[in-house]
Each structure stands twice: as C-alpha cells, then as structure tokens.
Design a protein that fits this description.
The chain has about 350 residues and is of the alpha/beta class. It is built from 15 helices and 14 strands. The protein has a six-stranded mixed sheet, sandwiched between helices. Strands 2-1-4-5 form a four-stranded antiparallel sheet, with helices on both faces. β9 and β10 form a beta hairpin. α5 packs across α6 and α6 crosses α7. It is globular and about 65 Å long. Bound molecules: adenosine-5'-triphosphate and magnesium ion (MG).
C-alpha cells in the first residue's frame, strides 16, 4: 500500500459566480483582498499541494478564514474544486461517479465535527451504529459491532442515553466512536476538540493518541491551536489566506519557521517542552556525560546537562546506540525565542 494516502495537487477554490475566470487572476498574482475588492469573489484556496501520509496524523492549522474547512471538505468532495486534483490511495476523487463517491464516503472516510453532529433523537448506541446502518448492516448488529468503540472511548454504560444528557466531552467521544465504528481508514476531523474546555480537550487528545497507537488511521486534523497541533501532529501544514505557507514536522515548524506569520504563531510556545534533543544534536559526536533518548524534550534534560562535568549529554536511539550529542549552549539557543524576521528576509515558498 502506498505511503501517501491523500495527494492534493494544484488545488484552487474560488467562491463566487465566475470562479474559473477568477483563477486566472489569482494565478497571475492577484491577492485575496484584491479579488474580493475588485471582483467580489472569495479566494478559498490557492495552489494547495499536500501529500498526506497514510496512517499518520496530519494537522492543518491556520487562523479563522484561512481555508481549513474548505480544504478538508475537498477530500471527500463535499466541495468541488475550481481546479486541481485530489487522489485518495491513487484514485481520483473528482472522477468518481455518484455511486463510487457514496461508497467512498461510507467506507473509506469518516468525519468528526466541531459541534459533534449527533442525532439528538437517537440514543448514544444508535448514533454510533449509524454509519454501519448506512453501510447496510442491521441496527441490532450495528449496535453490537459498535459497542466496543463506546468502550474504547470510555462510554460503556451510556448506550441508552440521548446526546442532550451528556457533557460536551462525552458527546464528542460519541462522535469519535461513531467515526471509528465504520472502520474507515481516513478520519477527517474539523476542529473536533475546539468546542471543549481545555482539560476535556487535553483528555480527548490523549484518547485520540492512544487509539492511534493501535489503529494507525490516516487522520486529517484541523485546528487553529498550535499547542494542539504540536501535541498530536506527525506533520503540520500552515494555511494563511488560502495558501499553505509551511509544511513540516512539528520540530521543523518550531526550529525553522518560514516567515513572520509563523514566527508570530510560535511566540508563545513553551519551546523546552516541544523541541526534542534529536532535532538540535551534533550528529555522530560523542561526549563524556549522561545519555538521553532522542525523543527527550529539552526541558527534561536541562538539569542533568547543567549538572554534568562537560555541560553535555549523548543522544541515543531506540537501541541505546549513541547517535549524537548536545551541549548546554545549543539547548539555551534552541529555547530562546526566535526574533521576528525583517520583511526583507521573508521567504515565501
Ligand atoms: N460557501 C462559501 N461562499 C463564499 N465564501 C466562502 C464559502 N465557504 C467559505 N468561504 C470563504 O472561504 C474562506 C475560507 O473559509 P473556511 O471556512 O475554509 O475557513 P476556516 O479556516 O475553516 O475558518 P474557521 O476557523 O473560522 O472555521 C473564508 O474567507 C470564507 O469566508
Ligand atoms: Mg472551519
């Protein structure tokens, strides 16, 4: 099976009466603001190129209006692009017939929504079973099949409750169980945890990460919260005004922000808690001193490095082999916030 689950190429979306014509203007460099001012069209997405790996959590992040929902809805074609391509496991989503598209939505993708999207007149068990019933499975069987997912999200015993009788966090657990019950490989999560209180939200992130360790789903997770993105994303793409301005793993985003918008985004991050020692080590060099696993974050090694004779430590891999080393100075440099770059140095990709 391919490592790339979803491949998006040259995707444009323009809202308005004459989108095809407007794409030409945008391709010629017209900004989102000018397109609205001069032509009364909204630039939703501009030249999006993203490869979403299979079985990982890919986060799409950006401020309100940056195009996150528009992008995720193209993946199961709830929105038609103005131009561009979307392949899912090598299959062109745009050339699917109605029947193929329906099958694709029922079997290959599941959505989890910000406002939970539960049926208020159905019980918890019926809600979770819903996706299976749509696949043609009887309600009784579907309820039986979905019970294990309710257990997995900690809602065993709540089968006969109605959504209104549950807290927001519990309702979103139902939403998650429903998405998992259909066995779809691709989970599309649009601000799925954004409506929840911080502690409940952190709980949900834990549940998702825990499930992902077993299930290895292909998850596209939208958020406007950088802490959340860094916590759960294997990779992160940052959108601004409909454009991807940087994609990379969380370490890349923090250590090599591409422009001022991202530098602004990462200002408030606790860098010592996010940056790992592998990202900043001197490869191959060994020192006299303590050893730490490559995934250790700076905060957790700092005291030991300060206390060591050489103010240094080795970095080891899963096999306990030394793969490099770090010094106090590099840790301090990495923890220091990046300065906002001058406009002259902005590197728009
Ligand atoms: N149906 C539509 N008609 C016109 N413009 C639209 C439509 N849907 C979205 N837009 C515009 O496209 C842009 C991207 O919207 P989108 O909803 O994708 O943003 P978002 O990043 O999901 O924002 P939020 O964080 O608020 O959910 C915005 O400028 C929005 O106004
Ligand atoms: Mg949105």
């Amino acid at each position: 099976m391919s490592d790339i689950a979803i491949s998006i190429k040259g995707l444009y979306k323009i809202f308005g009466k004459r989108p095809k014509k407007m794409v030409e203007y945008v391709k010629d460099g017209m900004s989102k603001a000018d397109l609205l001012d001069k032509h009364n069209h909204v630039l939703g997405l501009k030249d999006i190129n993203i490869d979403i790996p299979a079985h990982k959590i890919s986060v799409i992040m950006g401020l309100s209006g940056s195009g996150k929902s528009t992008l995720i809805r193209h993946i199961n074609r709830l929105i038609e692009p103005t131009s561009g391509n979307i392949d899912v496991y090598g299959k062109d989503v745009l050339s699917m017939s109605k029947v193929e598209l329906r099958e694709f939505r029922r079997h290959q993708t599941s959505m989890v929504f910000q406002k939970f999207g539960l049926h208020v007149h159905k019980t918890v068990a019926e809600n979770v079973a819903y996706g299976l019933v749509i696949q043609g499975i009887s309600l009784d069987q579907a309820k039986k099949d979905s019970h294990k997912w309710l257990e997995r999200v900690g809602l065993d015993g709540f089968e006969d409750y109605y959504p209104a009788q549950l807290s927001g966090g519990m309702q979103q657990r139902v939403g998650l169980a429903r998405a998992l019950a259909t066995d779809a490989d691709i989970l599309l999560m649009d601000e799925a945890f954004s409506a929840l209180d911080p502690l409940i939200r952190a709980d949900m992130q834990d549940i998702l990460l825990d499930l992902q360790q077993d299930l290895h789903k292909t998850i596209v997770f939208i958020t406007h919260d950088l802490d959340e993105a860094l916590r759960i994303g294997d990779s992160i793409a940052i959108l601004r005004d409909g454009e991807v301005i940087q994609q990379g793993n969380p370490q890349d985003i923090i250590l090599k922000p591409d422009d001022d918008y991202i530098v602004d985004f990462i200002q408030e991050i606790n860098r010592g808690r996010v940056i790992n020692i592998k990202s900043i080590m001197n490869k191959g060099k060994t020192v006299e001193g303590p050893s730490f696993h490559q995934s250790s974050v700076l905060e957790n090694v700092l005291t030991a490095v300060v206390d060591s004779d050489n103010h240094a430590a080795n970095v080891v891999d899963d096999n306990n082999e030394i793969i490099g080393s770090i010094h106090l100075q590099e840790i301090a440099t990495a923890i220091a916030k990046p300065a906002v770059k001058s406009n002259i140095n902005i590197n728009y990709k």
